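Many introductory courses stop at the sequence. We go one step further.
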Amino acid sequence: MVRLITHNLLACHAKDCNTNNFPLEFKDIQLEIREAEFNSDFLKGFMPKLEWKALVDTARQLGDTSLPLEQPEMVDDGFLKSLHHVLLEIHVEEGSMTCPNCKHVYPILNGIPNMLLAEHEIG
């Protein structure tokens, strides 16, 4: 499933595409919200791995404005619940992700992104 926790780790891997290839841009998407079990320790541990600006920008493009523009140093339960929702409960079911650099399109069908490349696209 394409969730923002996964999306925040994905970059284009097409041949010779190694600059400005993150974050992939969602297009023509269908969203589904699914509840997930809340785990504050997991979220606190995962926060240092996040590209914060990319996460906030993507969440806002998807209609969620609950995260602050700057990653807070002190976190409370309210913030962690917002982060949990954005990372783990927003699912992209259909659509595509497009590289901002080379414009390669990665389709998403039934919640699964196709990240495979044709042989001539592999670097």
